[in-house]
Amino acid sequence: MSEALTSAPAKRKLSTKPHSVADRVFYGLARAAAYGAIVLVALILVFLLIRSVPTFAQQGIGFIGGSTWNGSIDPPVLQIGPMLWGSILIAICGVLLAVPMSIATAYFIEFMASKRIAAVATVIVDLLAAIPSIVIGLWGMLVFTPVAAHWASLLNKGLGWFPVFASSTKSYLGTPFIAGWIVAVMIVPIITSVAREIFSQMDRDIINAALALGGSKATSFFGVILPTASGGIVGGVLLGMGRALGETVAIYYVLNLSFDINWVDVLENRGGSIASVILSKFGEATTQEISALMAAGLALFTITLLVNWVAAWIVNLAQPWRR
Amino acid sequence: MTDMRVSLDPGNLPQLPRPATEPWKAKNPTRTVKVVAASVIPVLLTVSLALLFQIDYAIAAILVFLPLQIISSVWVGRNLYGKKGQADALLVVFTIFFSAFVGVLLTSVVWSVVSQGLKAMSWQFISQNNIYITPTTSLEYGGVGAAILGSGLIVGLATLVTVPLGLLVAVYLTETRSKLRNTVRTLVQAMSGLPSVVAGLFIYSSLILVFRLGYGGWLGSAALLPLMLPTVARVAEEALRLVPQDLRNGAYALGAPAYRAFLQVTLPAARSGLITAVILGVARVIGETAPLLLTVNSANGTSADMTQPLASLPTYIFSYIHNVNDTSVQRAWGAALMVLILVAVLFTAARLVSRDKTAKKRK
User: Which of the 8 DSSP states describes residue A171?
Assistant: First the structure.
C-alpha cells in the first residue's frame, strides 16, 4: 500500500494555459487565423476607403444624394443616389415577395409534410441556395423576364391607380419589379433555412399545449409559433436582405439601370443597383470613375456589413442552443 | 365509479381493456372523399373556366382559383371539424399555395437550364477551348474545356488557401476559451454577406493597383477567398462542435497535449463534417462571376498559367449571354448546365459524406 503511494507520478502543475511549445504554436495559429479574418474585413474597408477619398473630396455629400453621372466633363460629376436607392428598393421588393413564400415553405417542411417529403424538400431548398447567381441571371433574362413583364402589365392594368403600380413608360422589361422577383428567388432558400431551423428547435410542448387548450393549428401558428420564432425570422430576413443588396450579375441582366431616380414606381423600366452599376461601368471607366466606383462599393459594403451584423446578432440571440 | 380517488400507484391502476378497434386507424371514406373533392374541384373548375372564357393564366390563378380553393376548403373544413376547421383550412391553403409557388420557380430554373443546356452538350463542347469561335460559329466547334480547367485552377488555389484558414478559425471558435470568440463569430457571419463585386473591387484596389499587376488567375483566387472563408469556417465550426467534449477530455486525461488531442481525436471524429465544409465552400464560389471579371478577365485558349488571364465557366457564360445569336445563347445555356452539374455533384458528395457519419453513429 505504502509502496503504491510512493510510486505515484509526480504532482503536475494544473493549468488551463497551454504549457508546451507545440500547444502554444497550435493555439497561436488558431488565434492568428481568427485575427486574420478580422484584419481581412478591416483591409477591405481600408483599401476601398483609400481609393474613394479623391471622390469624396471632389464630389462631397452630393455623391450619395445626387443623381448625375457624367465622367466626360471636367471636373466630372459622379453621383450614385439613384443606384443606392435602387438597391434598397429592389431589396425591399425581394424581401416582401420572399417572406411569405419562405415562411410557408418552412412551415410546410417542418409541420405539414411527411418525413420523407420534408427531407426531399430540404435538400431541394438547400440546392437552390447553391445555384450561382449567373445561372439565375441567365434564367431571369431569357425565361422569367417575359413572364414577369406580363404579370407587371396585369398589375398595372388592375391596380395602376395606386401610385406604386403606376407606370408612365408602359414598358415592363427591366423594371425593379422583375429584379425584385429575381432577388426573391435567391433569398427564399436563405430565409427558409433559418426559419426551418428555428421551427425545428422550438419547444414542442408549448405548441401541443396550445392545441390541447382547444386552439386550432391556425391559432397555434399565429399565437404561439410565429411570436416565438419572430426574432430568428427577422434575423433570417435581414440576412436575405444583405444578400439582396449585394446581388450583382443576376440584376445586371434583368434591370434597366437609369440615373433618373425612381422612388417607388416599381413597374417603370428604370431602376438602380450599386453592385450592377459597378459591373457595367468598370470596363471603360476613367481613373476618376474607378475611384467613384470604389466609393460606391464602400457604401454598399458598409450597408451590407451593418445589415448582416445586426442579422447575425439577432439570429444568435434567437438560437441560444447554438452558443 | 363511486370512489373517485383512484390511487396513482402504477401497480394499483385499474386495467382498462384495450379497445377492439383502434379509433385512430379507422378510415373515414366520407371524409376522404370530401377532402379530395375540395382539392380537385377548384382546379378543374378553374381550368375549364379559363379555357372557356380565354382568361389569362395569372388572373385565373389569383382571381379564380385561389378564391374557389379557399371557399371549398373552408366549407369542407367547417363541415368536418366545425369552426376550428375553417382557420386550419385557410392555413393549409396558403401554405401549400406559397410552397408550391417556390417549387414551381425552382423547377423552372432547373428545367430550363437542363433542357436548353442539353442541346449544346457534346463531348467536344466539354473538352474544346474557345479559340477562333465567334457567336455565330456552329455548335460543332469549340466548347468549355478551357473554362472548366481555368475554373478548376482558380477555385482549387482558393480552396488550398481558404480551407486551412477557415479550419483554424473554426478551431479558434470551438477549442479555445477566448473572450473574442463571439466577436469573431459574428464578424464571420457578417462576412458571409460580403457582396461578390466588392470582393473583386478589394483585390483590384489593393493587389492590382498597388503592385501594378495585370489580370491573372491567382488574383481571382484571392478575390474568392473572403467569399469562401465564412462558409468553410461556419460549417467546420458546426462539425467540431458536434464532437462530444468527453472525447477531448479523454485525450487530455491520457496526457495528450492540446494539438495532439485535436489532430488525433477531434479531427478524425469530425472528418466527414469538415469535408462537407470544404465541399460547400467550393460550391459557394464556383459560379461567382463579378470578382473574376474584375481580377482575372477572360481568355479563349487553354492555359494553366495562373499569372495570365484565364478562361472560366462564369465568365464564359457572361460573354455569350448578351449575344442575340441562337448558337451563342445555346453556348451560355450549355456552360450554365456544366456549372449546375458541378454544383449538384459537389452537393451529392457532401450529402454522401455526411450520411456516412450518421450511419456510423447508429452502430
Answer: -
Is residue A257 helix, strand or coil?
A: strand
- Test the B interface: residue of A196, A216, A313, A323 with most B CBs within 10 Å: A216
What is the interface size between A and B, counted as CB pairs within 8 Å? 267
What is the domain extent for residue A225?
82-322
Mean pLDDT, chain B, as a whole number?
87
Q: B11 to chain A, minimum CA–CA distance in Å?
A: 28
A277: nearest CA partner in chain B = B197
Q: Is the CB of residue B97 less than 8 Å away from at least one CB of chain A?
A: yes
Helices B196-203 and A226-246 pack at an angle, to 10 degrees, of 40
Segment B108-134 shows an average pLDDT of: 90
Give the mean pLDDT of A218-224.
90
| Digit-coded pLDDT (tens) for A72-91 | 888 888 899 999 999 999 99
Whether B180 and chain A come into contact, CB under 8 Å, resolves to: yes
Beta bridge partners of A69: A78
Closest Cα partner for B285 from B168, B162, B112, B188? B162
CATH code for the domain of A161: 1.10.3720.10
pLDDT digits 0-9 by tens, B178-222: 888 888 988 888 888 899 999 999 999 999 988 988 899 999 999
Residue of B nearest to A113 (CA): B96
Total structural domains within chain A: 1
> What's the complex ipTM?
0.88
* Cα separations in angstroms, A12 against A4, A8, A19, B258, B320: 18, 11, 11, 16, 69
C-beta atoms of A26 and B109 within 8 A: no
pTM of the predicted model over 0.95: no
User: H or E element: which one contains A69?
Assistant: strand A69-70
In a domain, A35, yes or no: no
Question: Residue B362 has what pLDDT?
Answer: 42
Facing residue for A297 by CB, picked from B56, B90, B198: B198
Which domains can be identified in chain B, with CATH numbers? 26-117 (no CATH), 145-362 (1.10.3720.10)
d(CA B156, CA B148): 12
- Whether residues A185 and B105 touch (CB distance < 8 A) is answered with yes
In a domain, A53, yes or no: no
* Interface contact flag, B351 A123, Cβ < 8 Å: yes
Specify if A37 maps to a domain.
no
B202 touches chain A (CB under 8 A): yes
Is B350 an 8 Å CB contact of chain A? Answer: no
